[in-house]
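Format notes (please read before filing issues)

Several people have asked whether sequences and structure tokens are stored in separate files. They are not. Every record keeps both together, in the order shown below: the sequence lines, then the token lines. Line labels are part of the format and must not be stripped during preprocessing.
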Amino acid sequence: MASDSATMDSVSLLLLLARWFLIWITPVVIVVTVWVIRAVSKKGVLSPRPPAIHPNTGDPQAPRGWRVPTGLATTHYAIFSRDASSVETRLSPNKRGEDPKLVVFVHGLGASLEQLTWGGDGGLQQSLVEAGYTVLAFDLYGHGFSDAPDTPLAPHEFVSQLYRLLRYLEVSEPFDLIGHSYGSYLACAYVSAYPAEIKHLVLTSPFCCRLSCLCWRPFAALGALIVHWSFLGNMSHPRTVYRMLANMEGYRLPGFLERIADADTKVFITVGELELQIWNDARSLKEALAGQSALHILPRGDYMSWAQDTNHVQRSVKDLIVYALDASQPGLKLKLEAESWRLKT
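Then the structure lines:
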């Protein structure tokens, strides 16, 4: 009898939990589902979202630089250089394209060009500027202060966005290219399309877009929801992220890497040891570009260690990136000192 009573108590508890779920959780699921469907189904060109909070200052991120038409929509970009402070950088139009030490930065999914300023000491952009570089950063379509075109937003559309921006700025000399996370995939796509324009390629926490499940629209919608609610400094439209996830075209990466290998572009890859799947992506990139790449794995490092780890680690990773770019100068081979950096090949 005691056993029967315990069973009945367990059944009653399960029924109570089910009832609680139906009363409280189901409405939340319905509301969230409706919100996601409406967000990813918007039509037409979307204007930039209200600014997110800057991780460093706690203030809303303000636009810096300019907005120019780049084919599908308007692109927001900024230029960091020694001509002005790291916070209020402006570059006069008559200096466009003249600096041979130009670095172009492609941010990650859901972020903005402000990602370059995250972390201590002014972020990665300040380290690059202090090393004598002029840094061009821009917001991908549907991110930051760039408009969101009503298109599939496959990788080639972002490659075209950057190409048009560089033509507008009259950049005619080869430059260095840095990509972070999903921006690494776009950077590989750009080098594959225009190998003669790139001196050196740096990939930080590279995401290779091999999640084929995201081609299923409900998973892409769920991914857009996760990015919207959880990504640091998110300044993207849910519709933009949804379409990017559904059209990542990770199957194109081997072709990109073949053309990068044919061009003998020197590649430096850095990743945190705790980045799990990203760590595997970094290893696969190193293997595909074995003769022309170097891989640095930061011990116990996590995602974007150059902006979110201790100040010492941030400075170390940023210095390493600058060192790798210096190694792209003619006649200078990429050399990483084993006593200073842990290098896995």
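For reference, the curators noted about this record: The CA atoms of residues 80 and 231 lie 25 Å apart. Residues 2-40 form the longest helix (39 residues).
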